[in-house]
Amino acid sequence: MTEKLKLTIELVPASSWYNNLRSLLKKEMWDNLRKTVYAKCNYKCAICNSKGKLHCHEIWKYNDKKHIQKLVDLVALCTKCHWIKHIGLAGIHTSQERLSFEKLVKHFMKVNDCDRTTFEKHKSEAFKKWEERSRYEWTMDLSVYKNIEKHRTLGNGD
């Protein structure tokens, strides 16, 4: 099902919360990197092409046998697409009346040209996968970041 969807839910295992590239970098380094990502995406959301406020989203690939989460890319996402990616956190903000869950669901359905049943099924599958992955400790592989920095440095003529 996920292969057909343009916008998907990507829940980070609980054991890996706050364990990401952004948290490892100094603010200035992260700011420079995210601005590079925004430029790479032509200052539009990589999923729905909307303009406006963007977030730099880390895309992870999970090796469920070796419990390694590998950073594979960074993309620019609009606020709504980014909340969908982190729908669990969005649920917390919704319960605190900081966010409209229904607006996010409508955005998901519009971007994917699907119905509520498709959203609910995808969400349920994502949470099942999250529960399973959250049972383990994960090792982070940031080797792609080293390549990003290497290319950035070379590209700047340094």
Automatic annotation (TrEMBL):
<keyword id="KW-0540">Nuclease</keyword>
<keyword id="KW-0378">Hydrolase</keyword>
<protein>
    <submittedName>
        <fullName>HNH endonuclease</fullName>
    </submittedName>
</protein>
<dbReference type="GO" id="GO:0004519">
    <property type="term" value="F:endonuclease activity"/>
</dbReference>
<keyword id="KW-0255">Endonuclease</keyword>
